[in-house]
Amino acid sequence: MAFRRSREVEAREGEGGRGVLVGLFQVVASRPSGRPHDEPSCGHGEDISTVADLGYTKYEGLRLEPASVNQWLGMRFAAPPTGDLRWKAPQPAPMNNMKYYRLRDCLYLNVFAPARVTTASKLPVWFFIQGGGYAGNLDQNFNATQVIEESGHSMVFVQINYRVGAFGFLASENIRENGDLNKYIHFFGGDPDHVVIAGDSAGAGSVAFHMAAYGGRDDKLFVGGVVESSFWPTHRKVSDMEFQFDRFAANVSCGPDEAPDGNVMDCLRSKDTAVLQSADYAQAFPGLTSPAEWYFLPVVGGDFSQDLLYNQFERGSIVKVPVLVGDDTDEGTGFVPNATNITEFLEFMKDNFPKLSAKDLQHISAAYPENGLDMFPSHANYFAATANAYGENTFTCPDQVWNYRYNVEDRDTVAAGYGVPHVSEKTAIYGVNNTGPCDGCSYATHNASMVPIVMHYWISFIKHLNPNVEKHFTAPEWQPWIQRCGHA
């Protein structure tokens, strides 16, 4: 099966070149219908070819046969965020008649869509935000061909890259962010009134941030959310993280005493990418010695993130849409050291949660005993305690809703002492070899029967905002946690 980057065949002056996403995702601020989708709309529209004409540019994709799926890979949705555009909202893509872009930046997206649809088909849109701890784009090349086929060729899949690490989450009062809206998804057969935002890990956290954005203001940009193995790091205020900005600037010789005219931001924007990358690494919080697991993270500040996430969710200051949410049994095993004693365990917790008091640490050590009920015997004595404490704090417990627990065991992973770790459901959702090499993996062998079950739950939710409508015939009914005001 061919899988290659799309070619930009023409760029020209015109309207609409203002950031395809916050564009293709934040498609239009019109009222969503939220209607079920079984078949493409029969309304009139132009047939969609592999050349997508967006008005301001054309992109040549590739038709995959016999799957009857079109793919467009590596489409630019905004100008390269380099030089003066660093740490600014996405700007319009350049209109310079280039045939190819070869700049090394991240503002690209991929689209998969049925081949035989029109601009009036109005298919549900699965908009996927990849994970990576806000430090890397780790799921950048998903192949959505199989989920398009299994949906009956009745949905569009979009995947986005975004700025990460210090390039995306450097916190300071110097930095503010806005966004633009655009209207391009119908050029791929998608319905701008039926966009479901989905993500895993930090991408799932991003779904929550979008639900809480602008104080929970509902701009009718999405009708549902999917939150897989969500990453919930400590959500700090900008003022708490100014030290991080100061360190970063100093590490590239842009501190207030070194920057020309004392202008730190201008100095930072003048630096070569390689120089900035040299300072883009995790460091210890003030007063501590070991680097935090995750360092550059979203903060409270500005219009987009107005309060702590849990405050907004508790008081209902969010966009109220149906959400499919859950975690894996052993979320923390892939992130923690093989702690041999209680000192190593508690030092790791303190390094990652610096505001924990001595009394807090006593409570934690009492709640997570040595050997962790013999859960991971192949590791040192305090590995289980560390993994469970970190995993439950960072991934599982902040959900505070009745959510799914994914517990499909991979024999090799269990034998290695990691249980059912972070984002284990990923391959079952998208299919074998569609999220990375999986020849001979459990989903190709003893767990193969789980793939259609999990995949069709997700497909059904994207299309109908209900995982049961098109569930696999062997799958149990997925009961909603609560029914109120039409939302589960």
From TrEMBL:
InterPro entries: AB_hydrolase_fold, AChE-related_enzymes, CarbesteraseB, Carboxylesterase_B_AS. It comes from the Eukaryota. It is an enzyme of class 3 (hydrolase). SUPFAM superfamilies: alpha/beta-Hydrolases. Residues 61-93, 105-481 form the Carboxylesterase type B domain. Gene3D superfamilies: alpha/beta hydrolase (3.40.50.1820). GO terms for molecular function: carboxylic ester hydrolase activity. Its EC number is 3.1.1.-. The keyword Hydrolase applies. The keyword Zinc does not apply. Keywords: Hydrolase. Belongs to the type-B carboxylesterase/lipase family. This is Carboxylic ester hydrolase. The lineage of its organism: Eukaryota, Fungi, Dikarya, Ascomycota, Pezizomycotina.
